[in-house]
Design a protein that fits this description.
This protein is 86% helix and 0% strand. By secondary structure, it is mostly helical. The radius of gyration is 22 Å and the shape is elongated.
């Protein structure tokens, strides 16, 4: 039967592995990816998943042990797990944005708009997680993505605007006047949204 001391030793291994992956290793990989020919943070997702596995192991091991170990398991659950999930979403934002930019380069506006929408969804997910956290690291992460949020909203709206415009032109060419009129109405809405984002 595992004693409290042995459970702590076993759990400490996974706890420290998770922290190391979440801090040092992820930074090294991100810096390396910036120097790569195609800078894309998708590689960091496997590291974050690995960190999550270690944290889950120690949480499952300690949460049923009354006292200090259960309290530490709760701290890991409430502090480190949200940071892992927020960083996963931020990496996904950068990944989808990279795919969107590549799609724009080859004229695939519809695909670009779809990827920008996915990036926006992931950014909102990260913001929700970080806003609900009381950890100082979460506050710093919120500050770091503030500028990215504004830029993403503008470029996402531009891509969506281009998609609607293409559809309006296509509908007019095919004589679908009602659809073209609706597209023009949508364009007006997006222009107002863009003005709001730019002036924010």
């Amino acid at each position: 039967m595992n004693t409290r001391r042995s459970l702590k030793r076993i759990g400490d291994y996974d706890r420290l592995q998770g922290i190391t992956l979440l801090t040092n290793i992820i930074s090294i990989v991100r810096n390396a990816s910036n120097d790569f020919w195609w800078s894309d943070p998708i590689s960091s997702l496997s590291i974050l998943d690995h960190a999550r596995e270690h944290f889950d192991l120690v949480i499952n091991l300690w949460q049923e042990v009354p006292g200090e170990l259960a309290a530490q398991a709760s701290m890991i659950q409430n502090t480190f797990i949200p940071l892992v999930e927020a960083q996963r979403s931020i990496s996904q934002v950068q990944h989808f944005t990279s795919l969107a930019n590549s799609a724009i380069e080859v004229g695939e506006i519809v695909h670009a708009s779809s990827y920008f929408t996915k990036a926006s969804d992931e950014l909102n997910k990260a913001k929700t997680i970080l806003t609900e956290s009381n950890d100082p690291t979460a506050f710093m992460m919120l500050d770091s993505i503030a500028d990215e949020e504004g830029e993403l909203e503008i470029i996402s709206s531009l891509a969506r605007l281009a998609t609607i415009y293409e559809q309006a032109v296509s509908d007019l060419a095919e004589g679908k006047n009602d659809s073209a009129l609706k597209a023009c109405t949508d364009i007006a809405k997006f222009v107002k949204k863009l003005e709001s984002a730019v002036n924010h």
